[in-house]
Every structure is written in structure tokens, then in C-alpha cells.
Specification:
- The chain is α/β, with parallel strands linked by helices.
- The strands form three sheets. It has a nine-stranded mixed beta sheet. Strands 1, 2, 3, 4, 5, 6 and 7 form a seven-stranded mixed beta sheet that branches.
- A hairpin with a 4-residue loop joins strand 2 and strand 3.
Amino acid sequence: MTRKTVRIAMNGVTGRMGYRQHLVRSILALREQGGLDLGDGTVLWPEPVLLGRREHALREIAERHGLDQVSTDVDAVLADPSVDIYFDAQVTSAREEALTKAIAAGKHVYTEKPTATGLDGALALARLAHDKGVKHGVVQDKIFLPGLRKLKRLVDGGFFGRILSVRGEFGYWVFEGDWQPAQRPSWNYRAEDGGGIVLDMFPHWDYVLHELFGRVTSVQALAATHIPQRWDENGKPYDATADDAAYGVFELEGGAVAQINSSWAVRVHRDELVEFQVDGTEGSAVAGLRGCRVQHRGATPKPVWNPDVPATEVFRDQWQEVPDNAEFDNGFKAQWELFLKHVHADAPYHWDLLAGARGVQLAELGLKSSAEGRRIDVPEISL
């Protein structure tokens, strides 16, 4: 075996997602397994360069994991010809500028979403990457989750017949920060910093719906700020200027309708933090992060509406669990592996900056729909 080192500048690893999912559970996990086998006698060895604004926090992470490459100088790292890939998990408002610099420097780029705060910026990134000839990818982790992979298996196998509707519920209660610390950073609730649940979650819903059921052709949304005041990481109160809940209806190519509620101001009464119910002429399924249950047409009970007597059946017990039938690795790690193979072995990969721009487009049109109180068509975009 020949070992090939790939140096990855990782910007934003002091944040929750950048650290846990991308550094620890993806890149460091690949190192723990001995690297990534490309299948041609080559093993890729990822060498992260920790990049950010707080040197002390970067060095603490590096020491914890036995790493030695940290920097607060983005320009110097991008000018280093030994750096192959730039990865971005910063706050949304800082991402477009950093990605532009990385692409201009000729680096392959892999990034969290949304790729920009507006469609114009997201498309500019995609076009720049295309013109520079660099490889580019956008994190679309949810389609790599076990529950949604099982759901995709059902779709591909024709289980549903004609799909009629998709209903999604996502969210949980994020503490305001006064009497208990918030589980999300305060910038998430400031529109001026790129916060808001529409900009955060509609890009997810775009690729989930697009990959599993069909392209979104129209959106009608209502965004709300249910909690108008929150407390930041230092215990200081601030006004929440971004939406913390969104209620969306999406028409899909092929005729199905999707309804998805997203909220950081809802208490969970479901099996997982996100669940999708898919109903079709031949069967239905409910999928979460890991599990997936089905009810086929031939096994569908015949409920009768009678509010005058107690329910005599447990409806959840009438569904069948879909078996794993495979080992499911961490979804973020699985996508990192595909992107690294794309960069170094030219393996197929379509979750690129144009796909990321579609997500930004849906968020932008969702906010416009909410502001104007109307349904808005979602046109196809291209380079």
C-alpha cells in the first residue's frame, strides 16, 4: 500500500459542528482506521490544519488530539501549496468570503451549508469553482443518515407506489439562555450574523426532498420569531432578530406535496428530533435519524372516527420496523470519504456548490414567501 497525505485546512473546528462531526467523527476517525483506502493500492492519510481566529482554542484542540498544525492566518494557509483542500464550518456570514479566497487560490473546497447568505453569492461561488477547475462539495449530511437511507431504499424499490405527500417535523426547545445555557450559539438568532432557522434548515429540506422525492417547484412559508429575547454566551440579553420557526409547504416535481415544520421553540413529542412521514398509494413510512417504520397497503388497518369512545388500538404498534440490512457509518464521515475519493480518484460526486446554491435559493424564496404572504415558484438554476 502507498500512503498519500492530503492536507486539509479546517476552518471553524472550534464550533460544535466543526469539531464534533467533521474533525473528531470524520477526519480523526479516518486516521484511527488507518486512512481511506482508495481501492487501487493507495491509502489517503488526512492531515488537518486547524484554522480559526482563537489560537488558544485551536492549540487546546490540537493538544487534545495529538495534532500540531494550527494557524490563525487564513491567507498564509491558502498560499501554502501543500494544502490540498479548504473546509469551512464558520458562521454563515463569514463563509462566502473565505470560500472565494480558497477557490481563487486553487484549493478544492468542501463546506457546510448554507454556502452564502443569498443566491447571488452562492451562484458566484459555484461559477468561480467551475471556472477555476477545482473540485467542490457541500455537506448534505441528512441523506447519509440511517433512517433516510432506509427511506431512500424504499423509494428506489417502488414501495410507495405513487407518492402523495411528505410531512416533516424537525426541532426542539432551545433554552433562552437566562436560567439555562442555550444549546445553540447566539448568532443563530441574529439575522445580521446570518442566523435564522429558514437559512439554516431550508437548504437541508431542499436536498432531502430533491434526492428522495423530486425537485421543489414552489414554496409557501411562514417564518416566525417566537422567542423575541434571548441571552448570549456571556449571560447578556439581546434581541432575537432572526426567525426561530418556519412552517413550509413545498410542491414537488411529479405532483407530491411536502409540509415541513422547523422550530427551535417546540418541545419534542416524537421518537426522534426529526421525522418524515411519506404516504403513497401502496404504502407509507415514517423515518427519523436512525429508524424507519412502514405500513403496506395490504396491512393497513381500517380506522373509524368515533370521538365518543376511547381508542381501542395502539396505532404505533401497527407499523413494521425496516431492518438495517447494512452497517451505517457516521453520515458526515461517509460524505467526507466520498468527497476525498472525488478529489483524489475522480470518483463521481454531485453534491457540489450548485446543489448548495439550490438550498440557498429555497431559503431566500422561503423568506420572500413569508414576507409577501404568497406561494412562490422555484425556478431551476444553472451555471
